[in-house]
Design brief:
Helix content: 10-25%
Largest sheet: 3 strands, mixed
Radius of gyration: 16 Å
Distance between the termini: 10 Å
Structural class: alpha+beta
Number of domains: 1
Oligomer: single chain
Number of helices: 1
Strand content: 5-15%
C-alpha cells in the first residue's frame, strides 16, 4: 500500500496491491478479519461467524504448512 497520511480520511490510500497486482476496484476479493469491531457491516457481503478463534486458526495453519517465513518490509510505504 502506498499512502499519504496527511490526506483526509478516505483519500489517504494512493495505491493498494494484493501480492504483486494492483487492486481492481471492479473485482470482488475474499478477505478475513479477526473481529467485526473495526469492520462496519456496510463493508463486505456473505459475512460468516466461524466457531474458531484466531489463535486456533493460526495454530491449524502452521501445523498444516509448517514454518511460515515472510517479509513485511516495504509492505506499507508513506509517499
Amino acid at each position: 500500500m502506498y499512502f499519504k497520511i496527511e490526506n483526509p480520511p478516505g483519500q489517504r490510500i494512493q495505491e493498494l496491491f494484493i501480492l504483486d497486482e494492483r487492486v481492481n476496484p471492479d473485482r470482488t476479493y475474499a478477505a478475513a478479519f479477526v473481529t467485526a469491531q473495526g469492520v462496519p457491516e456496510k463493508f463486505g457481503t456473505k459475512r460468516r461467524h466461524l466457531d474458531i478463534s484466531a489463535v486456533q486458526a493460526m495454530r491449524q495453519y502452521v501445523e498444516k504448512r509448517g514454518t511460515i517465513c515472510t517479509s513485511l518490509r516495504g509492505s506499507v510505504v508513506a509517499v
